[in-house]
Design goal:
Shape: globular
Largest sheet: 7 strands, mixed
Number of helices: 1
Radius of gyration: 13 Å
Distance between the termini: 39 Å
Structural class: mainly beta
Oligomer: single chain
């Protein structure tokens, strides 16, 4: 079991930037995949970005070139740097971590994982 706590959300103008953080505690394995999911009102939860145990990254098409996922293993912290934000990015953002045997498959393909946090709200105004 991994406990995840997101922070850094808030309100920003379109075109602005924001950086989210996710502090992990409990059982943590650097070989596991971690990622960010988001959900807007009336929409299904969707995968945003992921980073694998080898630090390889993937992004959904709508955020490529604007978002950057990274991790600091020593601090057990995951980050999401968001630039050139758009109103369509408005959602509650969740940090997620999955077990070794699943790799990044469940996070990327199904927008789900063994563990995720309570989320942090990001609101982008036009």
């Amino acid at each position: 079991q991994v406990k995840l706590e997101e922070s850094g959300g808030g309100s920003v103008q379109a075109g602005g930037s924001m950086k989210l953080s996710c502090a992990a505690s409990g059982y943590t394995d650097r070989r596991n995949c971690m990622g960010w999911l988001r959900q807007a009102p009336g929409k299904e939860r969707e995968w945003v970005a992921s980073i694998a145990s080898d630090s390889s990254t993937k992004y959904r098409d709508s955020v490529k070139g604007r978002f950057t996922i990274s991790k600091d293993n020593a601090k057990n912290t995951l980050y999401l740097q968001m630039d050139s934000l758009k109103p369509e990015d408005t959602a509650k953002y969740y940090c997620a971590a999955d077990r070794l045997e699943y790799g990044c498959t469940r996070i990327v393909a199904w927008a789900t994982a063994a563990d995720w946090g309570q989320g942090t709200q990001v609101t982008v105004s036009s």
